[in-house]
Amino acid sequence: MTGSPLTLYNSLTRSIVPFEPIDPSNVRIYTCGPTVYNYQHIGNMRAFLFADTLGRVLRWKGYPTKHIINITDVGHLTSDADAGDDKMEKAAAAQAKSIWEIAAHYTEAFKQDVARLNITTTTEWTVATDHIPQMIDFAKKIEADCYEIEGGLYFDTSKVPHYGALARAATDEGESRIDPVSGKRHPQDFAIWRKSPPGEQRQMEWDSPWGRGAPGWHLECSVMSLQHLGHPFDIHTGGIDHREIHHPNEIAQNQAFCGCEDSGARIWMHNNFLVDRGGKMSKSAGEFLRLQTLIDAGFHPLAYRLMCLQANYRSELEFSWDNLAAASVRLKRLVMAVEGLRSRDDGTAKGEAAPYRARLDEAASDDLNTARALPVLEEMLADKKLSPTVRLAALSDFDEAFGLGLALLTRADLRVRPVSATLTETDIETHLAARKEARAAKDFARSDAIRDQLTAAGVEVMDGDPLGWDWKIDV
Questions:
Q1: Which residue in 20, 121, 384, 425 has the fewest CB atoms around it within 10 Å?
Q2: Angle at Cα 76 formed by Cα 72 and Cα 80, nearest 5°?
Q3: Dihedral sign (CA 22, 24, 26, 31)
Q4: Which class for 382: exposed (0-12), middle (13-18), buried (19 or more C-beta within 10 A)?
Q5: First and final CA of the chain: distance in angstroms?
């Protein structure tokens, strides 16, 4: 492909490596998806924004992609380890609904968030419960590397080379240690198939050679990536939390299946945490921040996307309302700049935007350095040596890579009504019309009173601005 060589950080080797596709005509990507027992918090959504940016950059650089994201609707326990209740079963019991209803509701909610954030590179969603026979067949093939205990079939991690290399856990006390289960040979061993306890019937359980039960959480990703992408495939992504337990176990299964040291993917990539010093990021706390929370506060979803793009995906990113508000202001300025170009576009091509495209390519090719590329966009939009036509054409490249959709956004689109608002847009327009009449009649006392009334209701009146008004967001 033309342009700067693409380099990516491989978590498995802890190094920046050149991207060399297995098949340049079909780059294959697998992203660990959500467990659909609850809404996804905004920290979860950072992983999918990162994966989407990866897919966008690959496509922009000319690589067709096949990008799979899985839906976990069975098997994931209440901790990310190997003991506790199934998250799906627990949620169904708590809400007095069937597990299938729980899965359907939260899958739809997740996909709605995906659409709001303009995440578009996914080519296929794979669902865990659609692959139970394949999981059982996979488990049969690796059974020689497993053993049975009362709780089910467990994988013996001593049977594969360099177990835990991804997590870099050197001892039983290392990062990849998982919870103790009676009968396990080694602390790191993990469930391939969990038998239902005697006298207990789960909503999701199937017959298997190891008893009636459900697959272990890690099995699904090995099976679905193999079926839909083949092994090896190009890139496996996920949150940094998967690097310690889930992905080392997935690699161990893949190595046992192929009887080789192949991890299943050529490159393993992980985004870092989004942290909230207020302590509301984890769903286990009961109260957590989701995308709808930001929208209810009056923020456009793409302000959150921009906030994430402003940081390196491998860096810890702190969430605060002030940080989100700053990203929202930056997004509005970008949209205003593009709107101005659209209003002045007369089709004249003047100037050359190739240097800006080259700088975008250099930054994006440097392990998806979006933070470095964003100022290039702003500089290009402000470059008066380029005609509006040329700048708008170059904008399409930045939109492809960043997914902000600036070519179509308007400031009116960014005007999101806070859930706390007491006025409708119709109410506001009625008040503004009355204020205009008062001003025309030189009744400035009434005009000021209407303005004060709107301000008290959280509406910012913008005289002389074509937009007219906007919501004032309190953070």
A1: 384
A2: 125
A3: positive
A4: exposed
A5: 45
3-state helix, strand, coil in the chain (%, to 5): 45, 15, 40
* Tokens linked to 293: 């929370």
Segment 199-238, tens digit of pLDDT:
888 899 999 999 999 999 999 999 999 999 999 999 999 9
172 confidence band (pLDDT: 50, 70, 90): very low
Strands (E), 279-417: 317-319
Cβ atoms of 34 and 72 within 8 Å: the answer is yes
Q: Which two tokens stand for residue 406?
A: 């600036």
Q: State how far the Cα of 200 lies from the Cα of 250, in Å rounded to an integer.
A: 28
113 three-state secondary structure: helix
Whole-angstrom CA distances from 390 to 62, 335, 338, 361, 439 are 22, 17, 12, 18, 42
Strand-pair category, 65-71 with 124-127: parallel
**Is-contact 186 172, C-beta < 8 A?**
yes
Tally of CA atoms within 13 A in the half-sphere of 263 that contains its CB = 21
207: how many CB neighbours lie within 10 A of its CB?
10
Q: What is the pLDDT of residue 171?
A: 42
3-state SS class at 276: strand
Count of Cβ atoms closer than 10 Å to residue 438 Cβ = 18
Per-residue pLDDT at 282 exceeds 80: no
- β-sheet bridge partners, residue 470: 460
Residue with tokens 């053993």: 147
Count Cβ atoms within 10 A of the Cβ of residue 258 and give its class: 0-12 exposed, 13-18 middle, 19 or more buried. Answer: middle
How much is the average pLDDT of 349-370? Answer: 98
Locate 316 and state its tokens: 């810890």
Q: What is the gyration radius of the CA atoms in the chain, in angstroms?
A: 26
Please say whether the beta carbons of 24 and 254 come within 8 A: no
Query: Residue 325 is encoded by which pair of tokens?
Result: 């508000």
Q: Measured between alpha carbons, how far is 208 from 214 in angstroms, rounded to an integer?
A: 9
CA-to-CA distance for 197 and 219, rounded, in angstroms? 20
- The residue type found at 366 is D
User: Which regions of 231-343 does DSSP assign to beta strands (E)?
Assistant: 233-239, 265-271, 274-276, 317-319
User: Largest Cα–Cα distance in the chain?
Assistant: 89
Instruction: Give CA 356 to chain center in angstroms.
Output: 27
User: Residue 338's beta-bridge partner residues?
Assistant: none
Torsion 36-40-46-52 (CA) sign: positive
The percentage of residues in the chain with a pLDDT greater than 70, rounded to a whole number, is: 95
Give the bridge partners for 194, in sequence order: 152, 214
Q: Identify which of 372, 371, 405, 374 has the alpha carbon closest to the alpha carbon of residue 301.
A: 405
109-122 pLDDT, tens per residue?
999 999 999 999 99
Q: How many CB atoms lie within 10 A of CB 283?
A: 18
